[in-house]
Amino acid sequence: xxxxxxxxxxxxxxxxxxxxxxxxxxxxxxxxxxxxxxxxxxxxxxxxxxxxxxxxxxxxxxxxxxxxxxxxxx
Length: 74
Prior knowledge:
The chain has helices at residues 32-40, 44-70. It is an all-alpha fold. It has one domain (12-70).
């Protein structure tokens, strides 16, 4: 999950993408290229890092929604 929608980390386009998973939301300190590598090698760490990223992303999303609710914007 990212601010721009879901990404398919196994896609070849991420092979050399050394940027963050989601540039708009800081989550984990690993690049798309590293996660791509881990998934391609079927490393168990890939699932743990992807889950950690998704949980942090969802927490940030909910934090933003709570703030909007408090300001009566939603």
